[in-house]
Fold each of these.
Amino acid sequence: MFKEIQNKEKKIAVIGLGYVGLPLALEFAKKFSVIGFDINQERVEMMKNGQDPSEELEAEAFENKDIVFSADPEVLKDAHFFIVAVPTPVDEHKVPNLRPVLGASHTVGKVLKKGDYVVYESTVYPGCTEEDCVPILEQESGLKFNEDFKIGYSPERINPGDKEHTVANILKIVAGSDEESLREISAVYDSIITAGIYEAPTLKVAEAAKVIENTQRDLNISFMNELAVIFDKMNIDTKEVLKAAGTKWNFIKLSPGLVGGHCISVDPYYLLHKAKQIGYDPQVILSGRRINDSMPAFIAKRLVQTLIAKDKTLSKCKVLVQGVTFKENVADIRNSKVADLIKELMGYSVNVHVADPHASPNEVAHEYNLTLVDKISDDYDAIMVAVNHKEYVDQDAAFFKSISKEEPIVFDIKGIYEPAEMEGMTYWRL
């Protein structure tokens, strides 16, 4: 398979051209013939014109690449090595929503041929690829797994907004359904990954490795968040505590914060779902999720208490929230906990203005029914800096005073500023 791909006798198809699939497809297209497939025609048209809908890649990334973008499933008939990189979210009940990955399996199954390979990059629970996806591929194609076609799993490790850790220089985990598939799939990925390949012994090991990477981070941050709540009640600056504790050589340096996005706040639910299926009720993972999910309400209540302490009438208060994306310097608003925070504040009848230089106003309106202001005002009762976008890092006391009423209240969720820099105002950080 690899030699035929190398000689451009067979094509690679990447299904799902989001923040994972698009950079991967373009990286492969430097050397091989690639089909980039996405069900969203509007996004496909943007990519045909050298635009990344996720705003992660520059126009130059599309230049001199052997790639065809399409939303027509028929073009997939020309491919023999399929990579599925669709999102795997959770629903409103925090239950894994496998519709995208199962839908992609139906699409690939319809064009699957003898000798083809299918590699999944979407985050799933251990066993999902073999137990949920393979039967669909067999059903749609009429082919036999491991006899007529092979399967692989190679979990994505893309970090949105990170210009240092890109596709090529992140160590890649690869697993195959047998020795031959592992060898061939490793060779395909090794041709573009400069950081190297780690061959996992089984598909389930690779699936489990991915899901615990973000679960571990979720748990560590939940501990920081619980400390922040405790220390706030004791009137102790959490950031100063962590700086002091961080002087020990083996202290793990992490910070409290809002845990949103499409990975850290989602992946643990996939592991929880599978654990419950096999009869185990996880305690630590679920506890961490509860703490992190509770932070928007905690921060909103803390701000409301501060406003009330200043003898302000909540229904007459105007608060500016700076930043609504799930992390700094990206346009991605999926599963943003800042949106939850804003809605918590609105629940107290506070008038909230939302600003973000990176987020799409249309996407924010569609996803959260929130409106981004075109221009900020100069009479805010409080300002909440929720995301540490580069545009906010250099804001100083003079700026906050210029957009506030008589005594500014600044809530610094990401701990961007130092208390000493915020004289003449009420300053609070998580």
Amino acid sequence: MYKFMTLKDHVYQYIAQQISKGELVPGEKINENEICRELNISRTPVREALIQLASEGVLENLPRKGFVIKQMEEAEARQLYQVIGALDGLAAQLACPALTGKHLKDMAFYIDSMELAINSGNYEMYYKQQENFHDIYISECGNDVLINALSQLKNKFVSKTYDLSVDGSGRKVLQTTNAEHRIILELFQKKDIKGLKEFLQETHWNPELACSEVII
């Protein structure tokens, strides 16, 4: 279902994309006037988006400095993985009976698209396709509170970037992660609800990997 986007939503997405592409980095101040000029909008929706991102832990509002990109600490990353893993597993459990053959084919398409993105060193494409992959079952879970909670928690990882050169460690991380996506798809195909919950919580969102993984 199409969701109408407010000006604040557009600004929110714009800032998140700038962070995910590495054009805004941890510790860097957000230039509100520049965003207003780039998007040709007033200051109000920009301020609203910044406040929302700060409330979600993506930004910090520092005295005499303004909004800056927040650096995630190791302990926070581990705690987030624990919570997201449990919620993602629940979403998969609720969605599993509702997924159709088309849903599963679309998931397979996004996995192949992620593989292409990794091989071509296109992190932005990978990030978008992995969002599409997970959104298929999350959007079918039938629980709006759960959907919103997962979205807000995952947004905290938006500032992660990776070296996707041939010898870059980031490429290996994403290859491992995408192999996990194939396992998730197989579990959905088998309608193995118990296996899905366990795999998402214990492997795909393993807290021990929180410091090296991308948003997955």
Amino acid sequence: MTYRIGQGFDVHALEADIPLKIGGVEVPSAKGSLGHSDGDVLYHAIVDALLGALSLGDIGTYFPSTEERWRGASSKIFLKHASQLISDRSFIIENVDATVILQEPKIAPFIDTMRRNIARLLKVSNEQISVKATTTDRLGFTGEGRGLAAFAVVLITKKSTP
């Protein structure tokens, strides 16, 4: 069996009067994620992890922030595309383990919905998706409320052929 692991990381500044989208959920907050697309750091980190698992570059390879057509785009488009690239190469997503780093607001009440959104887009079960949240105890740009970040790790396996 062929196993591949990928890891992804994304970071965005937080700015007033912008929606805060994390894992496809609009989280109530005075500040939102500033990005060329909808700024969903969790989806972006997972996309990079999926692409990295097959050495296919990063999110900017497929969805460059220099292209106007991606301005304000839903990051679920990016996640679906990365999932399709995995499938096209005869791999299966075994699991995703992700961590969101954000001082506030607390996102624990939204994590189950985020997991369901990710599982639906990747066409896997909820049990294959882990989303965790942490703070940096008020240290650094995330702790000071100036930004948020996400890490993701994925495991994929080659589909067996009869």
Amino acid sequence: MHAGATGGGYTLDAGVTTYVSIEMTGPKSNSIIDDNDAKTTQTAVRVLLERAGISGATVRIRQKVQVPVGYGFGASAAASLSAVFAVSSALGLEWRREEIALCAHMAEIQCSTGLGTVSAIYKEGGAGLITKPGAPGIAEFVKLGKPRDIKIVAVCLSPMEKKKIILSKNMRNKINSYGRKCLQRVLEKKTIEELALAGEYFTEKVGLATQELKKLMKRTREAGALSASQNMIGQAMHALVYVDKIRKVKRSLEGLNIQTMEFGIGETGARIFRA
């Protein structure tokens, strides 16, 4: 309940949509059939069923994932959160949002795929800071103002093994040391621009970016991006770009045999769509 991480980031206007069907097959163990075979999502659904006291259910999950998986976009948190909201709705559970989201948070901790993303995105979107770690309802989130004319341009090179980094004592110490400095820096001004600059500082000091990624970040800044930082955790970058600079920034990345993506900053959290 109190495990997690502090830090800052942005909710994207792209995410994960989950379609679920449930069949009660009798008094036996639950079966999770997931077309994406995502361990964190399956763990989150199992946690929810156990906490609800449900057994003998066959849950079929189909997910449409709009962001790259394994590159630090928070896809595992979004997928597990989307799944537990869909399953709870299908079962007719009248739980508070925090109780539903807790199942996704627990799965992220158990699977070492994330340490706080669920607590940042389950309720609302935007840009902001987790200033106190923990599960949904325990974590404290400070929302930052968002200029209407900012977009995010992202590029992916290769995924990273998040578990090894999270479990490394030396890397955790490094992340915690520089993370505290960045958090304090952003809390002093509480602007999205300061969050962007802190992301650049954190990227430089933690030292997980390859030379190729560093060159891409430098290129986007020179083309007019407000900032460019490494995704945490993946060999991928996200650049904050004012709308009038989007074309120039994207043009600077042409001819490099990489996929360039563009996102808006999302304003909503998890929600139910009924067929």
